[in-house]
Specification:
23% helix, binds iron/sulfur cluster, 3-stranded antiparallel β-sheet, 64 residues, 3Fe-4S
Length: 64
Amino acid sequence: MEVRVDNAKCQGHAQCAAMSDDFFELDDLGFIVTISGAVPVRSEDRARLGADACPERVVSVEES
Ligand code: SF4
């Protein structure tokens, strides 16, 4: 699985981190700092939950 993050569109809602048990990392202002890349198998469920929670569709997952 790959996660895609369009960091420039982040609005700082922090829902991605809250719903993914901090798989997605935020800066001190609540904006996402996680970048696109491969997701470890053990973290796939958390990545899906966090991506589904983003109201701006900044984060998505691509099943491989
Ligand atoms: S939920 Fe979406 S908009 Fe909010 S911090 Fe996460 S990536 Fe950014």
